[in-house]
Design goal:
The structure holds two protein chains of two kinds.
Chain A lengths: L4 H21 L8 H19 L4 H14 L5 H6 L4 H19 L1 H10 L6 H18 L2 H18 L8 H18 L8 H13 L5 H26 L8 H14 L4 H24 L3 H12 L5 H7 L3 H18 L2 H10 L7 H16 L4 H14 L1 H4 L3 H13 L9 H7 L6 H25 L9
Helix pairs in contact in A: 1-2, 2-3, 2-16, 3-16, 5-10, 5-13, 5-14, 5-16, 6-7, 6-12, 7-8, 7-9, 7-11, 8-9, 8-12, 8-22, 9-11, 9-22, 10-16, 10-19, 10-21, 11-23, 13-14, 16-19, 17-19, 18-19, 18-21, 19-21
Chain B lengths: L3 E6 L6 H14 L2 E8 L2 H12 L5 H32 L4 E7 L3 H10 L4 E5 L11 E5 L3
Parallel strand pairs in B: 1-2, 1-4, 2-3
Antiparallel strand pairs in B: 4-5
Helix pairs in contact in B: 2-3
The chains are: A mainly alpha, B alpha/beta.
Amino acid sequence: MRLPEFHKNSFILCACMILFVIMLMLPAPDGLSVEGKRALAVFVIAVILWISNALPLSVTGLLIIAMIPLLKIMSADNAFALFGNQAVFFIMGAFIIATAMMKSGLSKRMAILLLSHFDTSPRFLVLGILITCCIMSFIMPEHAVAALMFPVIGSIAASLDLNPFDSDYGAVLFLSMGWGAIIGGVGTLLGGARNPLAIAILEEKFQITISFFEWMKAVCPICFVLLAVCYIILMLSFKIDIKDVSAANKRLKEELTSIGPMTLLEKKVFVILLLTICMWIFASNIIGLAIIPLISVVVLFGFHCLKWEDVHNYVNWGIILMYGGAVVIAKALEQTGTTVWLVTKFLGIGGYKTPIFTLIFFAVLAKLLTEGVSNVACVAIILPIALSLCPATGIAPEVMVYFVAVSSGLAFILPISSPPNAIAYSSGYYEISKVLKPGILLNLISLIIFIIMAIIYWPLIGIGI
Amino acid sequence: MMNTIMVVFSATSISEKIARFAIQRAEEEKARLILLDVRDQDISRKVGQMAGDIGFMGDKMIEELQHEIKAERGRLIEKALKSIEDQARERKIETETLVLKGPSADEILRIAKDKGVSCLIVQKRVSGTDMEAPFKVINLTP
């Protein structure tokens, strides 16, 4: 029998409360302090809630921030101060800049302009959608790219007069939108908020960071290889059941005509965006990752590119609570020695012969978890534990961050795994059963390619595994 | 009295297999065919909720996305229904298309009763293997 969602969530919450009380009442296990046991209890509850979505992710973040000082794991001042982590402000600034791009119409213009270079054949159009969504996800959140591209792809599909029952090409169009956005989302710190969260957890634990440019340099080339593989898998897995895309070409031209020439507002947002990206690439080490977007946001308001109402309409502020909560629990686990205890107890530090085995283990774990859990939650759950293994195994913590964050971002099968997949699926052009095989194949091959690229390419740019 | 076959299409997708079966059966029984398109808000609501809770999109952005999803799905469903209607009319089958908002078994049965439906064809939630028919046939009259 299927339980209504409300009852299911209530049941999970009750079970969590009982489990929480039991864990607190039990004596601390050998090798773990009382504070460590309490932090573990909060972590277990947070993991259950993040996986089940019985509470919104942001409310689970609030629960963490309330429980950590209440259980005397960390002082209230210290716990609340972690909400001021620069990753939280970076994400906030990045989301507001994305709002300006969408509100001004700049993002739509950029997407259609890019796409209009690829509308000569059915296969080339698919490649165009993949590349457009990937590049757009380099500069704005991947889910926003999928939401932005959905009507564009929908209007292309409508213009092509596809078979409404079973058009493989319709499925390919929307899948290339979702998968392109997902691949691009791992390429920079802007595409997926999990990337700055991973850096925040790294900073809190090791006081080292990864700059915007370092991330791009390490992951962007991998994205282009993944795009090529994704394209091949799409072409091999689905039949291209149309021959002519001239109608799509016409529709894209109509779309471009309808949005008219570039407005002053778009020009202003474009210049500010360009300067912001240049600052991130060349000066984030000097100025600070989060300060740059915050200044850009002020400039956007100063030049009347945004109203506060727009920000409110396009951004859900729960994001700050989710990310703040994730950083707080990671810090609490680290400070109380819980992560070290967990890996010693359950994973056995001595059992890992090579760093590469450890890295692959966590990459696979992240891959498996991210298909059923939000990729942000996946990073919040796995990374604090994975980083604890770094000193014992000799793995550079930055490398572990790349392995966990990138693997967490690459979920290609289920709609519940990430918003771009859900948005693509909602088009109605395909059933989940249709993407199982290509999705599993892409998941597997993307993992292998990522590992091979990390082994071959990263040493060339000075990242040693 | 002429038999009436009602085929119920869910909001998830319109299966060509079901449509072919229903048309064939209506032709064999010289029955009237009713296409019932059950539209619910479930997918756009779920995607919207996910976009807000996991993607942290703002309310207006979610609203716009949900509107686009509904429009896109609606367009696809209408095109599919039109194609089924055309195929049925080519075989001289009397066809009627009805739209029901919100998935309600009671409402489907009420329509079936009102329209004097003798046979109901519904899509299965999980179709299983390809060999298995992805639908269920329910005879409403003895």
